[in-house]
Each structure stands twice: as structure tokens, then as C-alpha cells.
Amino acid sequence: MIVVGAGHAGCEAALAAARMGCRTLLFSINLDTVAHMPCSPSIGGVGKGHLVKEVDALGGEMGKAADLTALQYRTLNTRKGPAVRSTRTQNDKARYRILMKGVVERQPLIDLKQTLVEEILAESGRVVGVRDHIGAEFFAETVVLTTGTFLHGLIHIGRKHIPSGRAGEFPADGLADSLRNLGFRMGRMKTGTPARVRRDTIDFSRFDELRGDEEPNPFSLFAEKREIAQIPCYIGRTGERTREIIRRNIHLSPLYNGTIQGVSARYCPSLEDKMMKFPDREHHQIILEPEGLDTEEIYVSGTGNSLPYEVQIDLVRSVPGLEEARVMRPAYAIEYDFVYPTQLKPTLETKSVDGLFFAGQINGTSGYEEAAAQGLWAGVNAALKVQKRRPFILDRSEAYMGVMVDDLVTRGTREPYRMFTSRAEYRLLLREDNAAFRLVEKGFELGLQDRDALEMVEEKERRIELETRRLEQKRVRSTPEANRILEKAGSVPIDESATLSRILKRPEVSYADVEAIEGVTSDLPADVKRQVEVRCKYDGYIRRQEAEVRKFKHLERLEIPGDFDYRGIPGLSNELKQKLDEIRPLSLGQASRIEGMTPAALSVLMVFLKRHRQGKAS
């Protein structure tokens, strides 16, 4: 197989395919930017951290690389329930890139080459290979496109408009044209990146220090304990002068003078966008994030904009603490083409060109983590297609990856898609802390995890179950010492006796409190203790979601034949018929999630699907 693009999606796609036994040709426009982090020097975050954990559990590489290059760990949403707690690391960008490139280069069956792919070669509705900018042709049974922001990429800095896939890199104009010639419906999106300033020109005393967790929570299940000197970030705020500069120069912003046509990310607006849409807010948050140990560059999160360079300098220096800051790289906006993802199957293979797969920003998503997850998904399925094995699909109850892919291929997206915990209906079952228990076995079945990994997870699961049963059976009496511990935890005393499980169910009581009440310190690993506590506390809610999943699975099992004729069904609107015909849902469950589907329309579809089956049987 061939993978075009060696960013986060491309690296995961190529590594997965090669580890499954496929000879894989991986193309990058520039070998010095393999696994480059063009924007934030960080991995993870709310929802995104879940994706990284899932990629790791299946046998991907992002979590391992993030752990080995982390400068700081933070667990987000610690005051909320376990379903929405997420890991985020600050990373050394250069070390991350070099480390990942080395992993790719050393992986057997991967051939890494530098070239600019300009054309998809297809015959009789099937992909056969690619052609590059010097006319060389390369042939394969499957092709995965992970093109990032390179399709007709156009950078905007004020009145300057530079054709580029990223700052300083060629755009992939020919490849974008090739996709249009193959009949793909394409749109335009916009993203951007903030300024970088020199560390020694910042007055850090004007900022609040933001330190990492004392006990780092690594992404990878297989990470060895690593002592890192965690580097702090710093939080500041814009002032009134910042707002005045933007208002005075807003006519020079390509985002506001009509130059940019691409759709912006609603959840990650640029600074000029925030200033104009929220005019009553006096301050907007600025975070200073180190780009690495061996560089003076500081990423100024919150200052993303597309204003002229001279305006940007004034804007940066209007932030308290940055009055003397020297801008090393200006902020910019970038527009690029994407393919409407409803043209894809749930495997991320295109419906119109057999053997052609898309992953990452080409599908209308944003973020390193979303790209890596799609890359692994597409790489696995492209390899399975070559090997004539059943496709790999996770549903919405099994993984955040399943939620994301289902959202894209069923509902599509009109703006850069970003993963949030709120998108997952069954998020209490899809926690970061149980990703390994959900997915390592699947990774083993694919050939991406070894038996040692599987046995390690199975042993942890066994110990969790044993400890959970022990707590359910062990009763403790009401004693002054036990009630003193409960009182210290902010809990009510035991009247006569209670099981340890019943005590642990109390929100304010921790596993450590239960150990103290019992008078025994368990030798169980910390992650096993956390699992026991979470499963015990949320047992009722988990059971309820498991019941909801069973109902969900029922609809997912009601398959819809590929040749089913929606046009002949009375009672469905023409718009819904058109959507069903375009998306071609695989099941009644997927059909139920199509935009515009109503309970009444779903009932009609169910009736005619039953008739169709009866007609086939007779």
C-alpha cells in the first residue's frame, strides 16, 4: 500500500499497515517535517486525550512518542467525574518529530521517500497508484491520503497570500485537482496558528505560573516511569490596548474583509474573531507554552490571527508582560481543501474509488489526535483490504474513535471537526482509564499488539475483578477508628457494620480511606486501585449505560443491503431519500443518526426493510 503524507495520520497509517505485514510506501513532501507539530506543542486535552489512549491501546505510536518527549503533564477536569478527565502533555516539538521519524525509518516493511504526489491513478473505479511531480509512477493495491492542510493550501498574513501547505512548504495543488477530477465533492476550511516569541524578551513576572501534575499520568500503557523536570507554562490576559489594535485594523484581516472563504473552527477562534464576536469581554486568556528544551521559541496560545505582520507586533506587545517581546514567527491563517466525509465508508475507504482511503484533515477534522486516530483506522483497513480480511470498525459504544468516524461518515461536518467528550453518548464506558481494557485485545487480533501486552491487561482485569468481589464481601464493624477516618473524609459514620464496597460507593470516600478502615495497605498497582474505585462508585450508572448500549446494538445489527432502493419508499421526504442514497448506511442504527431522520421516518424505513427481506427470502 501507499500512504501519501507523513504527518500524524500518515505515520500511524504506515506503521499500522507495516506491522500487519504490508509493504508500505510512505511519501512526505519534506523528510525533515515527518510528524511535525505545526501548531501547538502539546498532545491530548479534553476528548483528545481519550483518542491518544485508544491509539496506544490498539498498538499505535502517538502515546509512546508523547510520553518520551513530554515537558509537562496535566490531567484536566480533575474536579469532574472520571468520564471527562483527560490527559494533556506539553511536548518538545523537535524531539517528538525526530523520535517519530526514527520509529518510522526503523520499522520493517516501510519505505520512506520524499516527493510531491500530484495525481491519483485509478482504473475502472479502482485505485492503482499515484504519480508525483516529476512524472514517476508508483503502484499499490491500496492508497491512503493523509494530506493535512496541503490541498490548495493558502497562507494569509494581512494582504499577503502565499500558496503553501504549511509555512515554508509547497502546497499540493495538483493532488487537489486530481481528486476533483475523480468526482469528489470538496469544500474549503480555515485554520491558523499563533505567533512565536523569544523567551528572553518576556517578562514572566506579569504572568501566572501553570505547573504540571506532581504524579504524571502517562498516555501509553507501556510507558516506563520517567522522571522529568516539568517545565511550567504561564497564563496571562489581553488588555484594552489589544482590543483597540484589533478594532482599528480589523479591515486588514482576511477573515473579516472577505478574502478568506474557508469555514473556521467554532471551538478554536482566532483572536480577532474572539474580539469581534465577544465585544463586551475585557480580557482574553493568553498561555505561554515552551516549544522545546533546545529552543528559545515560546508558543503564544491565544494570539492566533491573520493580521499584517506590523500589526501583529503591536498586538503581541499589547499583552502585559510582552511589551518587549520579539516575534520570531508571525501568526497566520491557512485555507485548504477537504473532502466531504459522507463520501466515505465507515472504514474510511471512499465509496467511488475502490481501495482509496482518506484520513485526517482531508476529512474535515482538526487536531493531531483526531488525525492520528483516523490514520491508524484507515491504515488498518487498507491493510485488511490487501489481505482480504474483514474490515475493522468500532461502533459508538466501543471507542471515541468509533464516535468520530461515525459522526464524519454519517453526519458529515461543515466546520473543522474536533473531538469532545460531549459527542460520546456512552462516555462513562469510554473513559481514558479503561482504554486498554476495551481495545488491547482488538489490537492483538489485528497483529498490532503482542501477547505480552494482552496478558498484562488480562492479569490487571483479573486482579480488578478479584478485588471488587472481595470488597463486596468483606464487612467491617462500626468502630471509633473507622468512624474517625470517615469523619475526616467528610462522610457519616457506620451504624453497625457495612461492606467495604458500600463504604467506597460514597462520593467522598477514597480507596485509600477504605484501606485505612480495614487496616491493610494493598500491594495492588495504583491503576488497578483506580479501576476498582471507579467501577465501584459508578456501578449503577455503568449498568444503566450498558443497558442503553444493548438497545443501541440491536439497531446496529439490523443491516441494510447495499442495493436497497430508498426512492421507492413513500412517507420519506425527498431530502431524506437523497441523504440515505448518498450515505448508504450499513445498518438501521447508522440510518437513525442521519441528519433529518425522525422516529416516524425510521419506523417507515424499518417496515420497508422488513418487506425487502421477505421479498428476497421468497
CATH topology type of the largest domain: FAD/NAD(P)-binding domain
Q: Characterize the overall form.
A: globular
Radius of gyration: 26 Å
CATH superfamily of the largest domain: FAD/NAD(P)-binding domain
The CATH architecture classification of the largest domain is: 3-Layer(bba) Sandwich
DSSP strand count: 23
Description:
With 618 residues, the protein is an alpha+beta fold. The chain folds into four domains: 2-191 and 335-445, FAD/NAD(P)-binding domain, CATH 3.50.50; 196-332, Elongation Factor Tu (Ef-tu), domain 3 (Beta Barrel); 451-542, Arc Repressor Mutant, subunit A, CATH 1.10.10; 558-617, DNA polymerase, domain 1, CATH 1.10.150.570. A six-stranded antiparallel sheet has the order 15-16-17-18-14-19, with no helix packed on it. It has a five-stranded parallel sheet with strand order 6-2-1-10-21, with helices on one face. A four-stranded antiparallel sheet has the order 12-11-20-13, with no helix packed on it. Helix 1 packs parallel to helix 9 (368-386), helix 11 (435-446) runs antiparallel to helix 12 (451-473) and helix 13 (480-488) runs antiparallel to helix 15 (511-518). The chain is globular, with a radius of gyration of 26 Å.
List the helices and strands and how they pair.
Elements: E1 2-4, H1 8-19, E2 24-28, E3 42-44, H2 48-58, H3 62-68, E4 70-76, E5 86-91, H4 93-106, E6 110-114, E7 117-123, E8 126-132, E9 137-139, E10 143-145, E11 154-157, E12 160-163, H5 173-181, E13 186-193, E14 196-198, E15 208-210, E16 233-237, H6 240-249, H7 271-277, E17 285-290, E18 297-301, H8 309-317, E19 327-329, E20 332-339, E21 356-358, H9 368-386, H10 400-411, H11 435-446, H12 451-473, E22 475-477, H13 480-488, E23 497-499, H14 500-504, H15 511-518, H16 526-537, H17 539-557, H18 574-583, H19 588-592, H20 599-617
Parallel strand pairs: 1-2, 1-10, 2-6, 10-21
Antiparallel strand pairs: 3-5, 4-5, 7-8, 8-9, 11-12, 11-20, 13-20, 14-18, 14-19, 15-16, 16-17, 17-18, 22-23
